[in-house]
Amino acid sequence: MHSSANFMAILSTNLGEYLRCAEWIDLHSGEYFGSVVEYLRRMLDQQAASLSATDRDAVTTTFGRAIELELAFFDHVYAVDNQL
What we know:
Structural class: mainly alpha
């Protein structure tokens, strides 16, 4: 059986994690974030126009790897969350 102190420690740890996630979600949502994403996409498109085919392929490969890592991050978070 858990003592109330243990329960409070577990609760505060989980609450802290929830609040950190809530801040992250708030940061990455809404109109402002969307406008930043659009700005960065325009910049990337402008720069890509001047790249050689080899460099464009390298950027495409790097971007693809970044997406793979981001998906793996979310898959891991959801898997851990489902275990709690």
